[in-house]
UniProtKB/TrEMBL annotation:
UniProt xrefs under PANTHER family: PHAGE-LIKE ELEMENT PBSX PROTEIN XKDT (PTHR37829), PROTEIN JAYE-RELATED (PTHR37829:SF3)
Stretches assigned to the Baseplate protein J-like barrel domain: 96-186
Signal peptide per UniProt: none
Organism: Paenibacillus albilobatus
Residue span(s) of domain Baseplate J-like C-terminal: 286-368
InterPro entries per the UniProt record, alphabetical: Barrel_Baseplate_J-like (IPR006949), Baseplate_assembly_J_pred (IPR014507), Baseplate_J-like_C (IPR058530), Baseplate_J_M (IPR058531), Phage_Baseplate_Assmbl_Protein (IPR052399)
Family membership: Belongs to the Mu gp47/PBSX XkdT family.
Pfam entry (one): Baseplate_J_M
Protein's name according to its UniProt entry: Baseplate J/gp47 family protein
Chain ranges of the Baseplate J-like central domain: 207-279
Length: 375
């Protein structure tokens, strides 16, 4: 039996009516009298039984906190500590900023670590700071320097090249500073589900990363932004690792380097293994569909339209949030019909297989409302 097949378990009886009946029977047996509905003692007993039921629910929840399937928050953190697995903290997004001088100099120009460059039109509330000092050598005019967002979490992701361009710490002869890569890699504190999955894999880490699950475990420790990892051996002593980030994002070079560093630690990687980390191959697909709403639901037409658009967005996220997830139009149809559509005609996508080293990514999305239709 696998972990996901384990049946639900309860440590206390929480059936309100059976608890009340048992309490009434016990009191009536001991007092020798029947308690009618309007009996003040019965009302008092009902109040006590209500407290007892709430205590049983609390006891059940606390006891379930000892089990990996149900633990959350602090209880899950303590379970992880038993296996030396700790919740990954939030991380700041990273990018590369190109500093450009107004002219070539005859002496080196230092760009200190911590030099701040703000996001365009952010009013200084969002900025990136260089993570290391760098020197623009004499005769040169540019230098690419890594930088990290001023805040942790996903808010620093997605700034395209050229969008981080406001120098907040002016330096002599520095004419401009602008990001040349899209900011990425920012992640919120590791979620309960992600931490639970790593705890489940923890026994695979007790040795080196030789087993497939061991490589997956250690790869996920590199960043809380990683939601899925594929580990395969394309040839003898060769190991290929493919990580996927939250929201179906492809890993940046920074994330790839972090995973590679984690797996090539001498205490983790088997001596004879050669580990390569790369981004997943993208399998593109388009969404083209027309949906209809039942005439009987005309009063809810606006709400159903909004629900359908939301369902399509959720499908896009679902489709690209796992490696090897086949492109499945049936899932799209089910989601749109669950949102209230009567009929869905899907021209694209079609069923497309996706391997464990690939991830589906949507291209053009065209959702058309075809109007009202009779059942």
């Amino acid at each position: 039996m696998s972990y996901v097949d384990l049946p639900d378990i309860h440590f206390t009886d929480q059936q309100v009516q059976s608890i009340l009946d048992a309490a009434l029977s016990s009191v009536e047996a001991k007092t020798g009298r029947t308690m009618n509905r309007a009996d003040p003692d019965r009302i008092l007993l009902l109040a006590l039984v209500s407290e007892i039921i709430q205590l049983r629910v609390l006891i059940d929840q606390v006891k379930k906190g000892d089990l990996l399937k149900y633990a959350r928050g602090g209880a899950l953190d303590h379970l992880g500590a038993l296996y030396n697995v700790y919740r990954l903290p939030a991380e700041a997004a990273h990018t590369t900023i190109r500093f450009t001088l107004s002219m070539p100099l005859t002496s080196p120009q230092t760009i200190p670590a911590g030099t701040r460059v703000g996001v365009q039109n952010s009013g200084g509330t969002m900025f990136f700071a260089t993570t290391e000092a760098a020197v623009i050598t004499a005769g040169s005019t540019t230098k690419n320097i890594p930088a990290a967002a001023s805040v942790t979490g996903t808010s620093g992701n997605g700034f395209i090249p050229g969008q981080i361009n406001t120098i907040m710490d002016p330096l002599p002869y520095v004419q401009s500073a602008v990001n040349v890569t899209e900011s990425a890699g920012g992640a919120d504190t590791e979620s309960d589900d992600a931490l639970r999955a790593r705890i489940r894999l923890a026994p695979e880490s007790f040795s080196t990363a030789g087993p497939r699950e061991g490589y997956i475990y250690w790869a996920k420790t590199a960043s809380p932004a990683i939601v899925d990892v594929a580990a395969v051996s394309p040839a003898e002593r060769e190991v290929l690792i493919v990580p996927l980030l939250q929201g179906g994002e492809l890993p940046t070079q920074d994330i790839i380097d972090q995973v590679s560093d984690a797996l090539n630690d001498r205490s983790i990687r088997p001596l004879t293994d050669h580990v390569t980390v790369k981004a997943p191959e993208v399998v593109p697909y388009d969404i083209t569909l027309t949906y209809y709403i039942a005439s009987a639901n005309v009063a809810s037409e606006t709400a159903i339209k909004a629900a359908v658009n939301k369902a399509v967005e959720e499908y896009r996220l679902w489709q690209k949030s796992k490696l090897g997830r086949d492109i499945n139009p049936s899932e799209l149809i089910w989601r749109v019909m669950s949102a209230g559509a009567l009929q869905v005609d899907v021209a694209a996508p079609t069923n497309i297989p996706v391997t464990e080293l690939q991830v589906a990514q949507e291209g053009a999305v065209n959702v058309t409302y075809g109007g009202l239709a009779d059942d």
